[in-house]
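Let us practice reading a record.
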Amino acid sequence: MEVMGLRKGTCALITAIACAFCYASSTKDAGPAPQARIPVAPLGYVPPSPFYLTARLSSISIEFIDDTHLLFTFRLPALMKRLPDDPPTDEDQIVRALVLDLPSGKVSSSTDWRMHDRSRYLWRLGNGRFLVRQRSELYTTDQTLQFHPFLTSDAPLASVQISPDRHWIVIEAEGKKQDRQAFASASSAFGDALPNDPPVQIFILNAEDRSVVARARTLNAIEVPMMGDGRLQAIEGNHNKWIIRYLPFKGEGRELTEIESSCHPTEEPVSHDVALVFTCLRSGNDHLVSAINLEGKLLWQQRWESRYIWPTFQLAQNGSRFAYSSLEVSHSVGPMDPIDQDSIERQMVGVFDTHSGQLLLAKNATPVLSAGQNYALSPDGSRFAILREGAIEVYALPPVSAN
């Protein structure tokens, strides 16, 4: 699931996967050569200052439009004239959007967008379409880079989330005042009832027709782990036991599995029917990662180290692969071990087979970007793109095996 905002901290693997990451980072040309390499300095891209390393600001995105085009967006470092009606809290930036032909890297279309903050501004939908946010207005765009109105909220947006199959969109809006007309089709609710009209309202929309299938109110913005035609929920039991339930938007919920964890588990759907469940081990700060499907079957399980933080994901729309990025720090992370920019050593990105957990490719991204989006998977999972060493590199991945 793709989200605007901060994400939970997790890490990389103690056995074969950790070895592959170490090999990729210690061997400059490890793995296959890229199919295409597009230098980014001639396009106007300037790496951000290391000062912003821990700020998790959104300043770049790489996305596949189709088999022969990439969408590359990035912040232009320039002084800007404040608009007369802009709120004093605005942090305006100019984002350049480029459509790049593959494999040549030729710019076939370009435009500049004025954004009014530094939070995430772009998400991939299906069929070559993208969702773009300007303040509390959402637009769709495509290869033409033209904006088409999608939704307007009269309250600030706290979060935007896209389901792995791009069928559902979660909109979380701050404040009690809402755009009633935009969400008038809401027909069902989820989540716990809370008193005194909590300040964040959550709406789950169908991405095609914008109809609202579920809504809720919460005290704070949350992540909604969407899977299939519903969501996942962890319920605490006795003796560090947790029940993972599947709650469809329509119909009765059901139990998928029971797990053990010394902390509240978190769920990260990586396809229409597979999710990663992160749990805490009894000793140490490492995490146990379990991949389960909608039938509750355990597909694979791995132990990930706590010295890898701030994960981000990119998902193939067909669910075959997922790309996972995390920042390697110089020490294990715990309550008494804070993180600063000097602690961050590198950003590793691995491409995994969803159903087996096999690591297919591992590369380090440069410059290190704590908010991610400097890498991408094609919708069919056949290719991978990453910004590294002054260029966008595009790699062919092995054919998807039948599961």
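A brief commentary: The radius of gyration is 21 Å.
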